[in-house]
Amino acid sequence: MAEDCITLAHGAGGRAMAELIDCLFLSAFGDTAIADKEDQARITLEEFTPNGDRLAFTTDSFVVTPLFFPGGDIGKLAVCGTVNDLAVGGAIPKVLSAAFILEEGLPISVLQRIVYSMGDTAKEAGVTIQTGDTKVVGRGMADGVYINTSGIGVIPSHLNLGLCHAKPGDRILVSGSIGDHGAAVMLAREELGMVGDMHSDCAPLNGLIQSLLGNHQGIKAMRDATRGGLGCVLHDIAKASHTHLLVEEDRLPIRAPTHGICELMGLEPWFMANEGMVVLVVAEHAAEAVLQSLKQHPYGTSAAVIGTVTNASPGVTLHTSYGGKRLLDWPYGLQLPRIC
Question: For 277, which DSSP code?
């Protein structure tokens, strides 16, 4: 490509846009339907019907600042976020779309890093990026790049996961440490003046989740704890199932750097964002077996049973490290903006 930076011409539908697609997106995303350059992806039903009887569809937009952070970037985040949203519903992710809002002046080298990161993450997750769109806005109208990804997966006929299925006596599990993504993004923002060894947990979890569902009965619901973190997912479970969740603070897997950042900034780690951690509701009899399976997977080594579903009025109670109990209030907003 002749240009070093994105120009308005790259979104105008002419030769500059065609060169951007040919030289960058087709190269990064491989031999997919994008190469046909139709206005839509054409996907054979044979890719879905052998695996289940329902389609799952999701969409998400990503506006993280900065674009690159320890452990990931906005491109990896976009693929993982959509893959994980499909997987926690029991779906096998199959295809994604990717739409880009690019800011005039964005270095082509930066976009290249992002797009190739998306391609690499899609390969790890076993999905293909089949269609997309590119728009360019003027300088100062975006934070370099915004990405929207949508995804389609297929749900096996025997699965019917849902937060509403939680019942008193069920156990609450997490697949990994909490708050790492939020802490990593916070450290990557130089204006905060902090440094530390902190990495986002950003990862595609569909392999982990499919392994669990294929080997264990008793998993009732799953949710990836992104914006709002673990705390907001717990409230979602309580509200959907009309139950109360009792969580043991001492059992929460929190890495020392994340804990330190939260203490320094006066933040609560259970409301910090994650991008590679899933919350599970599991029947009591299956909880230990599911936990051990989680721990055997590279993305589940810090897994823990953190609480129990009870029959009290809907809400969440934290049994603190000091032996007391406190209601875990549902925050009105977020502790830190532009996390995912």
Answer: -
Question: How far is Cα 140 from Cα 241, in angstroms, rounded to an integer?
Answer: 44
Q: How far apart are CA 269 and CA 46, in angstroms?
A: 44
pLDDT score recorded for residue 340: 66
Instruction: Judge if pTM exceeds 0.85.
Output: yes
Task: Please list, in sequence order, all residues whose beta carbon lies within 8 angstroms of the beta carbon of residue 71, skipping any fewer than 6 positions away.
Answer: 180, 181, 184, 199, 200, 201, 202
User: Closest by alpha carbon to 306, among 172, 161, 177?
Assistant: 172
> Is pLDDT of 264 > 90?
no
Q: Would you say 75 and 118 are in contact if contact means Cβ atoms under 8 Å apart?
A: yes
Alpha helices, DSSP H, located in the chain = 15-20, 26-29, 74-87, 108-125, 180-188, 206-215, 229-241, 256-265, 287-295
For 163-327, CATH gives 3.90.650.10
Domain 8-155 grouped into CATH 3.30.1330.10:
yes
Q: Pick from 256, 258, 232: which is nearest to 245 by CA?
A: 232
92-103 vs 171-174, strand pairing mode: unpaired
The residues spanned by each domain of the chain are: 8-155, 163-327
Nearest alpha-carbon partner for 177 in 75, 88, 74, 252: 252
